[in-house]
Amino acid sequence: MEKIKTLVFILGGIVFFVWRMVQKMRETTRREQQERPAARPVPLPNTSFEDLLKQMQQQNQRGNPAVPAPTTPAGRRLPHEEAQKARTLEQPARKAQSQERRATNTSLEKKVAPARPNTGMDHSAQDNPLRRPRPTAPAPAARRVITDRLRTPADLREAFILSEILKRKFE
Fold first, then answer.
1. I want to staple 51 with a disulfide (CB 3.0 to 4.6 A). Which of 47, 79, 117, 125 is the partner?
2. Residue 18 phi/psi, 5° resolution?
3. In a domain, 147, yes or no
4. First CA to last CA distance, the chain
């Protein structure tokens, strides 16, 4: 029984809501009709297509009527203004230029100076002794081999490639 009372109460609320909407709609329609008088239908002329065509051709022969100059609400003429030309920063005359650099095929190996021709002088004489470098502590044999191998760019390239191959994927 309680469910039926709740259902009747909800249905009563819906009916009241719809009834109020209909009342508001009628009141709004009545107000609009008071504010705006009913539009009277304009009778259409009883002319044929040929008559209308002749009338248009006569108007075209006379020319278009001159349009009066625009005026302000007070009746003064509006000043004639022209819009300024749009400014642009584009330079369409310039040709598009690629920003890419050409690949160059240059060798990484050290260039050796060309050999000079022999002067014919004997340098083995004692009056011109050669300068000898100062003796330093000898480097370990293993270290010497690595430094000797890394002096040329080709060996350096091979070492780099080997390090990339042997390097762990994630360090």
1. 47
2. -65, -40
3. yes
4. 77
Instruction: Tell me how far the alpha carbon of residue 16 is from its chain's centroid.
Output: 57
d(CA 155, CA 148): 9
3-state secondary structure of 71: strand
- Quick one: pLDDT band at residue 134, thresholds 50, 70, 90? low
With respect to residue 23, please indicate whether it lies within any of the assigned structural domains: yes
The amino acid occupying position 94 is R
**Tens-digit pLDDT profile for residues 71-83:** 888 888 888 778 8
Mean pLDDT along residues 14-28: 96
107 within domain boundaries:
no
Q: Judge whether 123 lies within some domain.
A: no
* Stated pTM of the model: 0.24
Supply the range of the domain harboring residue 5: 1-33
Give the count of domains, the chain: 2
Residue 158, Cβ neighbours under 10 Å: how many? 13
